[in-house]
Predict the structure.
Amino acid sequence: MKETRSSSIREIAAGLGVSAATVSNALRGKGRVSPAMVRQIRARAHELGYVPDHAARALRTGKSNTIGLLVPNIGQPLFPAFAQAVERAARQRGLAVLIGDSRGDARQQDFEITNMIARGVDALVVIPTRGTTIAPQSVPVPVAVIDSAATAGNVAASDHREGGRMIARHLIDLGHERVLLLAGPENSLVARERVGGMCELFRSAGIEPVLKHSDATFEAGTAFGRALDLHRFTACAAAYDALAVGFAVAARERGCAIPEDMSLTGFDDLMWAQIVSPSLTTIRQDLQAVADHALSFVAGETDASRIFPIDLVVRESTASPPAFPRKGGRHAE
Amino acid sequence: MKETRSSSIREIAAGLGVSAATVSNALRGKGRVSPAMVRQIRARAHELGYVPDHAARALRTGKSNTIGLLVPNIGQPLFPAFAQAVERAARQRGLAVLIGDSRGDARQQDFEITNMIARGVDALVVIPTRGTTIAPQSVPVPVAVIDSAATAGNVAASDHREGGRMIARHLIDLGHERVLLLAGPENSLVARERVGGMCELFRSAGIEPVLKHSDATFEAGTAFGRALDLHRFTACAAAYDALAVGFAVAARERGCAIPEDMSLTGFDDLMWAQIVSPSLTTIRQDLQAVADHALSFVAGETDASRIFPIDLVVRESTASPPAFPRKGGRHAE
DNA sequence: CTGTTAGCGCTTTCAC
DNA sequence: GTGAAAGCGCTAACAG
């Protein structure tokens, strides 16, 4: 088996007594070939199961119709959804996707970029590993960086800062004044935007949240939930759903009821947010829009950089604090 | 910008007054080139930032050092973990991964296969969309099919049937006799193995589980949890974590306590299983082992087909049924 | 309308 | 040890 060595353009040409160039033209509808000939050629090609050789075409034209997608860590729950969105956007344009995983390592990220360039990708879509930036000038193909509005050279991103504001506003409206902020990694630009947006509003409401930095993981959230004095806060706002969910699990272990004793918010709207009990109030991004724009950029259809709006999804994990007086006034403890 | 048109082998050759062939040999450590020359060439190549042109090499050698990975649906929670495992195994062998998503559609799957072949992948790793099979003979490159032991041409898989048995044994040992089995899609070979393993043991214990088929989704699980008469069962075994978790959410809504009123098991050990409350007793597969073997197969290092053992992970969602008499005897309702 | 020619950048005999 | 030559399969000019 495995003998279907696909036939070449020359084979078709020979069989029909025409030249390779004519076959090439006919097959791609370029050049000027008589309709009759085109039909004949197409038929014969189909019959021989002809499939154009990608490498040869790439070598000749310098285009591979392939893009590289570099994610920080495919294992983390948000990126697969994103990869899917990119894949979909790419397919629409007839592009294949070479996937690379930086594994949270800047050197690995550089290596992957070089590697993908060497493999002839026409463009790159990269979500930078946190703490790194990409210099598009240093890369010989178009690069769409997807990170945060604050990132230099960013091409597409969700409005993380506004998302942060929405969360804060929601919590403030509910009456929370003592808030714990699980801020995620200190060197992540996305986290910084999210947290920045939250702090902005909290402070303008006279609230100074307590910031805790960590990895954006379930485990880190659990650790905080176990270690912190939960009575000090009426709300916990996490910069990532994973943190929030981890925190929720630990809080429950300690008999802290959400949202009765403490409100909790996440960020990303992973499937996790719906699964956990109580379901999580969080922020949802439009990944497909971001991916579409990134592809549209690398395909040269636009050279604009865009920030996409984001939605607040209110679920069961947020409520007014325990003894919150419905209207005006203060109350001690 | 973007002018780093990487230099060719000829450029290096010209600069050093040697031939292209010598440069090629030197760079790859093949042929016989004097050590001194090798050093010179390497140095110059590095200095020029030379990167071999992948398309040219692929055209010449017929090998692209790229494999295609085809998954049924990247959006589903298990596949990203799997993709990561494959990516890792591929990288170890210097292979890049072209990713494709069949989106649950057999035609899309065929299209992707053809497409990947055309793109010159050296091999394919495919997890067939349910209800489909892959005929390796019809594909001109090595294909590692990852599905179930029962699939013709399967190359690597977890022992789903044994996993099913482990679940059933666990439930039987706990004393359950009235069990609901959320069996997943009827045409999925993997689901069939899992369910087959369970039924085998249940029946040999004189228990006839009630089977319900559906998609392997959270939503389907929720629907069952809402629609079924929960009092009829003391345990629910799901063929997928997603089903189990969906079921748990709906059961909780209806005031059914897990595991007090009903035990629940899943299959896959998604992160979900740890997040949900109570945490889910489930089966964990060794995805990395499966991926490694698949790569080892397509790389020609082995031609064996292997089935990998699977683990039972006991968590909080399973317990003895409500009024289970610890030793012997029966009891009326 | 169709054919001829000339490579894309690399590897691989084979001769020197 | 090193070089010359011959393509891999395709496409882009240009000529007929």
